[in-house]
Amino acid sequence: MTLSKTVWSVLFRLFPCPVPVGLHRIGSPGRGSPVLLTCNFYLTVKRLKRVLRGTDAWLLVAESRGVNVWCAAGGDEFNTHSVVSVLKTSGIADRVDHRTVILPPLGGPGIRAVDVEKQTGWSVKWGPVKMTDLSAYLAGGMRRQEKMKRVTFDWKERLDVGLGSLFPFYFLFGLGFALFGRHLLADYLIIGAAAFVIFMLAEPWMPGERGIVKVLWLNGLLAVGLLATWIVPCPGGARVRADVIIAMVAFSVYGFELGGLASTMASELDPMLARLGIGAVGNLDFAGSVRTDLLNGNRRLVVDPVSCIGCRRCAEICPQGVWELSGEKHAILSRPAACTACRACLVQCPSGAIQAASVA
Ligand code: SF4
Ligand code: SF4
Q: Which residues have a Cβ under 8 Å from the Cβ of 186 and sit 6 or more positions away?
């Protein structure tokens, strides 16, 4: 059962895989032990417990409808209410002498720290972006080094996140071949998997910033090869051409999805669906959402320097390190091109100084 849940949550990460909400012990926690909080996605809780092995801590698992932190916070399923609720009902207040809870910073678009603090009396600290840095963060007195505040998308993350998000497409295409093109099924399974590994490993070195541009280059090269098989006849030409087309389709799917997988890139899919007039898929809202407007360039982030109180919450939460403070007075969006429109700064700003203003 546990193995099947692990396999499901690794390969079908887009789908919920919930665990019960509540309080868990890591090691032998006492009244002074740190209190960490995460979502109720099976894989996240399992991995968190693994990286914290050897540490004594309390772990609060909050409602996110079985979805991972980043996606659930973006879809408002992991939110202020989830956090307030588990802090008030889990009994944690009776087990510790302090009132500090460590939250995952990728929950920033959903959980408003100032509201949690007001409603519970607990003080919120944002932990490191990567759970693998948690032990170092706790050992360092709960201070985040700069690198612990930023998202990355290294080769291990690309393979891990890519597998969980793209496997359903691989599976569906495989089903299509099994039903309608069985003679090409084995070719598809090998080429689709190889294309995935090649794309995810080589992604940073491909020309272009966006997944779709990278795919254009890649498929352009394959199209030249395809053309060559028509001009210069080769043995098994039809099969070779079919295989090249399979590779081109696989690269297209992976490249198009890349922006949605990479927390370092803006999504291609959300703005496109909004432009096509598709307002929502399930609980994901596209048309008219602030995020989509930011991605489509219909709005941009602006700061009202009069309202800004220089609290640095925006700079602390931004996973791209986009914000700077001018002489500690007010916030400045220093690298707007790096913004992926996650909305975390808008949610966290306590004074409403950050706005998503319409572009005339
Ligand atoms: S500046 Fe952009 S990337 Fe940074 S927190 Fe705000 S919306 Fe997210
Ligand atoms: S913009 Fe908002 S969050 Fe950022 S420093 Fe000013 S008041 Fe704080």
A: none
Architecture of domain 285-358: 2-Layer Sandwich (3.30)
73 lines ligand 1 (CB under 6 A): no
Question: Per-residue pLDDT averaged across 283-306, rounded?
Answer: 77
Domains in the chain: boundaries:
2-148, 155-261, 285-358
| Ligand number with the minimum distance to the CA of 318 | 1
The fold of 2-148 is Rossmann fold (3.40.50)
pLDDT tens for each residue of 261-287: 766 666 676 667 666 766 555 555 555
Domain 2-148 and domain 285-358 have a common topology: no
Question: Could you tell me if the CB of 320 is within 6 A of ligand 1?
Answer: yes
